[in-house]
Amino acid sequence: MPKEVAQHDHLPDSRARLTMKDVEVEDYHDVVNAFKDGPSEEAEVSFEVSWARGGTLVNLCDETNTFEGTVRETTATVHWTGQTHGVRFDADTQTETVIALVGHEDNGVLFDCEAGDV
Predict the structure, then answer these.
(1) What tens digit of pLDDT does each residue of 33-53 get?
(2) 17 - beta bridge partners?
């Protein structure tokens, strides 16, 4: 994914946006067919996800899986469109999530926390 499609502010007053346009995908018609890698058609989708400001700041530290980060529990809205063979689908309204996380993480060689750090 090209860097320019994602925009974000820095924590603690987090806001982020991810926009993808005309992404080539395979349209499998339904999830069962997709899991089976059944017949598909070429399609394109575009979407924008916007994470809201505010919410609870959470520090994460998982020594077992060498994962750490700081995230903000917030909400997000999603708008998407898709098209295949001249048929276009457009979300009538933006969908708001119940919960969404925005933040940063470190893992592997960048991991540097201990359980007491949280």
Answers:
(1) 999 999 999 999 998 888 888
(2) 7, 50
